[in-house]
Amino acid sequence: MKTINICNYKLGNTAQPFVIAEMSGNHNQSLARALELVDAAAKAGAHGLKIQTYTADTMTLDIKEGEFFIKDPNSLWQGNSLYSLYQQAHTPWEWHQPIFDRCKELGLVGFSSPFDATAVDFLETLDVPCYKIASFENTDLPLIRKVASTGKPMIISTGMATIAELDEAVCTARAAGCPDLILLKCTSTYPASPANANIMTIPHLRQLFDVQVGLSDHTMGIGVAVASVALGATLIEKHFTLSRADGGVDSAFSMEPDELHQLVIETERAWQSLGQVSYGATKDEEKSVRFRRSLYVGQPMEAGEVFTANNLRIIRPGFGLAPKYFDDLIGKPVKKATPAGTPVTWDLIL
C-alpha cells in the first residue's frame, strides 16, 4: 500500500498510526480554550489536530421548526435548531490562522474539514496540508471535486455511505486530481456503540478501493481504536476536549487529554505487535529456549542401570533431550555412573 506523506509524517503500514485530535465545537466559543486544546493535544502525543470550517449560513437555513429543529429526545442536541447548533459549534474563520500557527509551533499537522466551496477557498489561503470530508458530506460530489482540485491529500469519512456512494466519491476524487486518498470507517452516531462499529469493514474497504483506511471513532474509550489497528487502520480520529465536565456540543463523546495520551501509546503498541507471520523462537526468545522442559537424570545411577519412570525426569531447564524421547529411553542403560541433575544426551546411553 502506498505511503502518504503529510508534512513530516508518513502514513501507512510502515509507520505508527497517525492520531488526529478533532476539536470540533469543544472550544466552547473561546479562542483561548481552542489554543489550550492545541497545547493539550500536542502534549498528549497526537500527530494532527483538526477543526471544522463553516458558518451556520453555509450549513443550513435559519428556520426553527420542522426538519430544521431537533426534536429527537435521544439526541445530544435535542431542543436546538440546526442553525443555532451550528452557530454554537462553528470555529470562527479568524481563529483558523492562530490555531494553525500554534499547531506548527508544536509539531502538529493542523488542518480542517471544509463544508462548502467557500471554505475550501479560504483554507487554501492558509495553505493547509490536507483536507477531511465529513461523513455527512461524503455524498457532496461537488465539494469532493473542489477539494480534489487542490491536489492535496484527502481523508473521507464513510459514515452512512453505501458501497455505491463510496465508489462515486472515490471515483470523483481521483478523476478530479486527488493524488492521495484515505477512507475512514465511521459510525455516525454520537456516541457510537462498539457493537455498531463494524471495524471488519476496514480491510474490505482497503481491498475494494486500494486505499489506506483508518477509523473515525465516536465510541467511548480506546478499545475500538486499538482493535482497528490490528485490522490495518493507519489513521485514528477522535473528538477531543479538555474535560467532558466542561460541557459543549461534542463533549459527551470526546476524549480527555489522559485518554488521548493512552490512545497514542496503545495504538502504537498494537501496530508494533503486528510484525509478520513468524514461527519458532525469535531472536529475543533465544535465551528463553533454555528454560523449556527436557530430560534429566533424577536420581544417581550406576553404570549399566536402566532408566525408569523414577530416575528419568521431565523438568526444566532445557539442556537435555526433548521430552518426546521419554518413552524411548525407558529401559535403556547408561554407560557410566551418572549423578542426579545430569542432562540426558544420546552419548550417555549405552
From TrEMBL:
Key word Amino-acid biosynthesis present: no
CDD domains membership: SAF_NeuB_like
Gene3D superfamilies: Aldolase class I, Antifreeze-like/N-acetylneuraminic acid synthase C-terminal domain
Keywords: Transferase
GO MF, one example: transferase activity
Residues covered by the AFP-like domain: 294-350
InterPro entries the record matches: AFP_Neu5c_C_sf, Aldolase_TIM, PseI-like, PseI/NeuA/B-like_N, Pseudaminic_synth_PseI, SAF, SAF_AFP_Neu5Ac, SAF_PseI/NeuA/NeuB
Claim: Kinase is one of the keywords in the record: no
EC number in record: 2.5.1.97
PROSITE patterns listed in its UniProt record: AFP_LIKE (PS50844)
The name this protein goes by in its record: Pseudaminic acid synthase
Native source species: Leptolyngbya subtilissima DQ-A4
Species classification: Bacteria, Bacillati, Cyanobacteriota, Cyanophyceae, Leptolyngbyales
